[in-house]
Write a structure and sequence with these properties.
CATH topology: Vanadium-containing Chloroperoxidase, domain 1
Radius of gyration: 19 Å
Structural class: mainly alpha
Shape: globular
Strand content: 5-15%
Order of helices and strands: HHHHHHHHHHEE
Number of helices: 10
CATH architecture: Up-down Bundle
């Protein structure tokens, strides 16, 4: 069913995104709601259609993400043990926040609240933010559901090792890659962070958005590479849909280049990820 939905969105994207025929809505909230709902749906389809238009630079970036994830994968056993060993030193409220905020139900409760606030107040910036949040979470979330089933990677808690894969196994113990909590939480954080120019503000928001994904590593539900690849999906999805929405709304967050790069840093006993934004 999920694959059929993805295919339907992709076909819709290929046949309708070439034309921008939607009129700017009137001042009635009903017209705004209809306009925004269409843009949510088309934004999801647009994000799935973009790989068909990638050129050399985009494929090189994708290759970098795959290579980076692969490098982290090689160290998954060691990093998993190290991160899980820190669990007891993490304050309980942070661990609880990570578990609660990253769940799909709570994610959509928050993102829908942002959108409805914008709709009720007729605030275009908030409406646009809500559309970006909901469509990005939907796009990335559907892709994550398909990937985790197709890849079938065993979770650390299953105690089968990082190299165990059993595609299409219905057991949740084989739904590790990529991390859903990391993906949803960071998708929200990255979308919200785009409204700020200050790198310090962005860094703070991204840090808060990374906690749910890290909490799943503490709990033995995911490997570090699951987390890293989920972050990459989040960034790519939000960037893609944000470009689409730029053509649909007068309110734009800022005029900066819409891109973020990341690099892996290795050293004696260390592993780090550097984000440039």
């Amino acid at each position: 069913m999920k694959k059929i939905l993805l295919l339907s969105l992709l076909i819709t994207a290929q046949t309708t995104f070439a034309q921008d025929s939607i009129n700017v809505p009137s001042d009635t909230r009903w017209d705004m709601l209809k306009y925004d709902f269409v843009n949510m749906f088309k934004g999801v389809g647009y994000s799935y259609a973009r790989p068909f238009k990638w050129q050399g630079k985009q494929w090189a970036q994708f290759g970098g993400v795959v290579a980076g994830t692969g490098a982290v994968y090689l160290l998954d056993d060691d990093t998993s043990r190290f991160i899980r060993a820190q669990q007891e030193s993490v304050p309980q409220f942070i661990r609880s926040y990570g578990e609660i905020y990253g769940s799909p139900e709570n994610n959509y409760l928050i993102t829908s609240g942002v959108y409805l606030t914008g709709l009720i107040t007729k605030n275009e910036k908030l409406r646009r933010t809500g559309v970006l949040l909901i469509s990005s979470a939907t796009s990335a979330g559907l892709l994550q559901q398909v990937l985790k089933s197709a890849v079938g990677r065993a979770r650390p808690i299953a105690r089968l090792g990082k190299d165990t894969f059993d595609p299409f196994n219905s057991s949740r113990n084989f739904h590790s890659f990529p991390s859903g909590h990391a993906l949803l939480a960071f998708t929200n954080a990255y979308a919200i962070g785009k409204q700020f120019k200050s790198p310090w503000a962005k860094a703070g928001i991204y840090t808060v958005g990374a906690i749910p994904g890290l909490s799943r590593i503490w709990d033995g539900q995911h490997w570090l590479s699951d987390f890293v690849f989920a972050i990459a999906i989040s960034v790519a999805t939000v960037e893609s849909i944000d470009r689409y929405l730029d053509r649909k709304y007068n309110e734009k967050y800022n005029n900066q280049d819409k891109r973020m790069s990341w690099n892996l840093n290795f050293g004696p006993g260390t592993l780090g990820v550097t984000l440039n934004f």
